[in-house]
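>> received
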Amino acid sequence: MDRLPWSRFHLLLVVALGITWVLDGLEVTIVGAIGPVLQDQRALGLTLQQIGASASFYVVGAVVGALVFGWLTDRFGRRLVFYATLMIYVGGVIASALAWDFWSFALFRLVTGLGIGGEYAAINSAIDELIPAKYRGRVDLIVNGSFWLGAAAGAGASLLLLDPNLLDPDFGWRLGFGIGGVLGLGILFLRRYVPESPRWLVTHGQEDEAERTVAEIERTVEAETGQKLPKAEGILEVHPKTSFGFGEIFSSMVHKHRGRSILALVLMIAQAFLFNAVFFTYGLVLAKFYGVPENKAGVFLVPLAIGNFLGPLLLGHFFDTIGRRRMIAGTFALSGLLLMATAVVFGLDLFTAWTQTFAWIAIFFVASAAASSAYLTASEIFPLETRALAIAVFYALGTGAGGVMAPWLFTHLIESGQHWALAGGYAGAALLLVIAAVTEWTLGVDAEGKSLESIADPLSKAG
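>> returned
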């Protein structure tokens, strides 16, 4: 798989799997933009605390979904699970459009989170195992960064959906969820182009199916590129098993790969805290501190989201050339320093709505690439048999520690109306980013251009 040239097959694979991130970005951004609208008695009449709590419900669902479906992905295969998780996700999004009070909205956000958490584990595993090694870093960053294409679309859509002159306040936000759910159904058809991972098949005793899958992929790539593929080199002997016990899996993560586990956890916590702190609450910040009308938040969120996507898109190549350690440590460190400076300026009340947005654009151009590299790191530095569960565990721990707490904490800081209180929250997020940079520089793995099996031996490897 690593010797294949880039082809239409790989492009279809990336679109079919990565498009979920676009939809997730769309509806998560709509949630951030509709925060003030949901307080309207004509809508759900939620309090600030309930808005923050509903965001936490979503994150809790994502944590649980990642753990459950991460294990199922390693046990039953990537293909089966990414169909199931997409259906759950779409169901949760459509149900969110039908919510009638806080508890129904929170429950449906929980269901949506279950689906997206499972998607993270199944999709990142499939992409890593099907994309050639020399492209893996940039593709992984762009796929994870495509969340922000959806975020830009969601922010733009919110300008129409939340305009009371066009739509009733209790209908516009529901329509946004409904559109996202319908679009999600279309992804089910795209995913028929994605095969099961041959690597997963061979380690689970399905050698004949793995051979047929690889042969079909090779025929497709040769036909699309017009190139004769070079002969495969190297032999890796494995002892296939249908399942791997939790003891065996966690022993690998906690003992043999302890340093890598610490690295993945620190990176995940830092990026989860930052992004959940800012993007679940930015509509509230604009309304509270700058008096931006609730239906105009999208004007500021669109350029911010575009900047977030441009970071992984333009910087992703360097993670495969300059190298993982230097780029990951550098992007975390630079975004942390920029955020610390922004916290001071905000505390001094020197920003306007636009100048703060421009500051966020600069920060997240770098931080978005750093955040995507955290998922790349967790997905490629552990043995094949534990890949999906490793992604799930560190996503769950990182998001549980950083993501669940951040929306709750920052809604309270925003409600205080004190600039220095919120600036202190931003400074705490900056410190986490700097700690992540130091950890990457110390414990990082130089995985660029290497096969997954050379980065971490499979548990089933003979001898």
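>> The chain has a mean pLDDT of 84.
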